[in-house]
Amino acid sequence: MLLALAATAIPAAATSRIKDIADFEGVRENQLVGYGLVVGLDGTGDDMKKKAPFTRESLIGMLERLGVKVNRGDTDLETKNLAAVMVTATLPAFARQGSEIDVSVSSLGDATSLQGGTLLATPLIGADGEVYSVAQGGITIGGFKATGAAETIVRGVPTSGRIVRGGIVEREIPFELNQLSSLKLALRNPDFTTAQRISDAINAAVGAGTAVPLDSGTVQLNSAQFPGGPAALITNVEQLPIEPDQQARVVIDENTGVIVMGENVRISKVAVAQGNLTIRVTETPQVSQPSPFSSTGVTVVVPRTDIEVQEDRNRKLAVLPTSLTLEQLVTGINSLGVGPRDLISILQSIKAAGALQADIVTQ
């Protein structure tokens, strides 16, 4: 009973599913992009005469493809109900022909709002230049813009929006998962220890020899000997719990003062002191005037400078013992009463002294 109570008192290690820390090679999304026109805007479209001539050219080209003869010198085409947009979408893995995907629409010219607009049929191409989807439909925006004579109110971004299920897949990406004799797991955070733990967990759950770590970021799976094939193997593997190993690292963002320390950050025994010296210079010039009815005196400005030196003498050395946990390290540094900017300098100085057993990454 005592052993059971002792076991329950030990905190469980943080585990993650394999599907949350690794990706299966070949099972991926693809980015699509296209150029299109949005019509039906209420006077909030592009200025086709001065700032967005490409919108006018696109309109003329579209009308000519539809069999409408257009005079390029016609000034009646300078409407404000049209906007040129960039359309983007993500093609999911194994998307089949005829399936629908969401698309995002963003203004390319000087349109002030896409509210109420309709995207005309726009081909979406992949990195290889092939058309994989066609998008069309009414745009839903998440903001608005109200303009009056003396004030303008903008909420959100009215020049971008989405069309839910507005893209239809026209071409499939050729990839036969069931024909693969082996699969590869790509770790999102490469680490040799984590790769070995994944391999051991898979071999214990599925069968010896199924998984072999190739390097710190890749684990190879032998799907040929699994009865259900690659799809069934992925289903069995991705739910396995793994405790990822974490590299001792301190990430510092100099711009915002954000500091993030990993769980395995340790320091050797070191003494730290942080001084606070403030020098304040105040200029209070005074005007000196001659006495009334004086014929010789002149008005001059006399400088007055006050220099104040303030030094916090309560700052003392603080000893940080060896093998601190993350919580103890944070508590010890906080006892110095320093802010994030000073803390960055302290951590860099501890690292320079060779007492910080972690890598410092500055962004």
TrEMBL record:
Protein name: Flagellar P-ring protein
Gene source species: Dongia sedimenti
Keyword Ribosomal protein: no
Similarity-based family: Belongs to the FlgI family.
Top-level lineage group: Bacteria
Keyword Signal on entry: yes
Subunit structure: The basal body constitutes a major portion of the flagellar organelle and consists of four rings (L,P,S, and M) mounted on a central rod.
InterPro entries membership: Flag_FlgI
Subcellular localization, as worded in the UniProt entry: Bacterial flagellum basal body
Pfam family for this entry, one: FlgI
Function: Assembles around the rod to form the L-ring and probably protects the motor/basal body from shearing forces during rotation.
Swiss-Prot/TrEMBL keywords: Bacterial flagellum, Cell projection, Cilium, Flagellum, Periplasm, Signal
Major place of residence: other
